[in-house]
Predict the 3D structure of the following.
Amino acid sequence: MEIKNQGRSSIGMEANLAALLSYLLGFITGIIFYSLEKENKFVRFHAMQSIVAFASLFVLDIVLKLLPFVGWALASLLGILSIILWVILMFKAYQGEYFKLPFAGRIAEQNS
C-alpha cells in the first residue's frame, strides 16, 4: 500500500526520510526512531519492522555461526540476503510504501 503524502514526523523530518533512517543501522536505529516518534504511524511501522526483522536476523546469525561445518557458510549467505533486504526496505520506505514482511510486518502493524 502506498501513501501519497506522509507529511512530517513528530521529530521534525519528512516521514519517508525518517522511515528510511529507521533501517540505516538495523534494529539500533529502529529502536531510536520507535522511541522518538510518537505520532506518525508510517514511521513507527517501519521502525518496529526494522527492530523485529534485524534483531531476528542478528540472533539467527549468531545461532548459525555456532553450527559446526556449515554454520559459517549459512551465516555468510544470510549476511548477503540481509544486505539485499536492507536495501529493499530502505527503498520502499523512502518511496512511501508500507512494505510488510511476513512475520516482522505483522508485529510492526500491531505495534505502530
Q: What stands out?
A: Residues 41-66 form the longest helix (26 residues). Helices lie at 15-21, 27-36, 41-66, 71-94, 104-111.
